[in-house]
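Q: I'm teaching a short session on how sequence maps to structure, and I want students to see two examples side by side rather than one. Could you give me a first protein with its sequence written out and its structure tokens following it? Keep the formatting plain so it prints cleanly on a handout.
A: Of course. Example one:
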Amino acid sequence: MLMRPDGRLTRQGRLARTFLFVSLVVAGVVLGSQAVAVGDAGPEPTDTYSVSPGETLWEIATALRGPGEDTRDIIDEIISLNGLEGAGVRAGQQILIPVSS
């Protein structure tokens, strides 16, 4: 019996309600993570690039820019790919750059 005659839940009723709630949360997390995985196109193709002396991230991004692309977007992408805190790079540094398809 899950309910008392006065309409309140018994201990078993409260446990069943808690179990149902936890089950729904777990199902939501599992299904949500699968939906994200399905929508993910996979890792972006990259190449490794060695920074030359005096070269800036702006120059590197400009060289990679395709028609209609914004250099600032490419810089943001390089910063994200490499986990950089800013746009500063140093000579000899190996960085990942996006490869256009």
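Q: Perfect. Now a second example for contrast.
A: Example two:
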Amino acid sequence: MHRVASESVPRFALGELAAQLGAELIGDPMQVVTRIGPLDNAMPDTICFVSNARYLPQLSESKAGCVIVSAAHREIAEQRGAALIAADPYLCFAKLTQLWVARARGVPNAFVHPSAVVHAEAEIGRDVSIGPLAVIEQAAVIGDGAVIGAQCFVGAGASVGAKTRLSPQVVLGARCHIGARGLIHSGAVIGADGFGFAPNEGRWEKIEQLGGVRIGDDVEIGANTCIDRGALGDTVIEDGVKLDNLVQIAHNVHIGAHTAMAGTAAVSGSTHIGAHCTLAGGAGVVGHVTLADHVHLGARSVATHSISKPGLYTGLFPIDDNASWEKNAATLRQLHRLRDRIRALEKNKETKPS
């Protein structure tokens, strides 16, 4: 069956890319590339990047039309053809992907689908796109240029900032707010009730969650991630935070600016995480603790207490600064052998005549 492409194929002249990316061009500025790809299967219309020296052997053999490299790899890049010389090739590649997607998508059409349900008292900005079966409730505010995907729900009194995109099937609960230029992926739920119950004679009595969620600008939230509303005050996600898929943020958590969390990371209630922190996959933080700015948790590590000193922390038994944890982990691997030696020494002592 014939398929109609939903996005156009981008075309960029190398001179245009060099100007927009702030890179130095080696080669013909009129040469055109039409796709981004890896070195090993690149064609003459492909642009690639190299940020790791171990891929240099592939670079000399690649058929790519252009490669992004650092000044340190300039000579080998010049020998094979066109190149963009960038101070940070990986960052340059990231910005290239943004240009690519922006050109492929084009400017979204300002359009409200006939099946969408938009309350008469909702405030809809200019150039807003609202997809099929979306629901916008009373007193919700949708900023200029925002995109509300199919089957999204924006609750009463909630707000979506300018140029923020909600992918299909996102829930933004009542009195929850996200700032400008955000991106929320499908299945994310913002503003579900926090997990609050009071024990009552062997049963649990629900504590109604009366707060909301406040999310800053330039925040990206992954698929099926959940951010719970606060019990009394708000759960707060500051500017530039990046959350991967399947992340759980409990009620009344405060996450500082530009912190990033990988898949299945979880933060318990009333915890304060500083700015520029990272949580690797599966990492967690217990409730009612504070992590300072620039604290980094390794994969599957659990912060069981507050951490006031920036650094990399690893482990569960117990968490420690990474250097100390590595020493303890090396000792732990010898624990069985040390136990046998101690037993042998004790037995030898017991058999010696007094």
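Q: What should students look for in example two?
A: Point them to this: The chain has two domains: 12-105, 117-326. Also worth mentioning: The domain at 12-105 is CATH 3.40.1390.10 (Udp-n-acetylmuramoylalanyl-d-glutamate--2,6- Diaminopimelate Ligase; Chain: A, domain 1).
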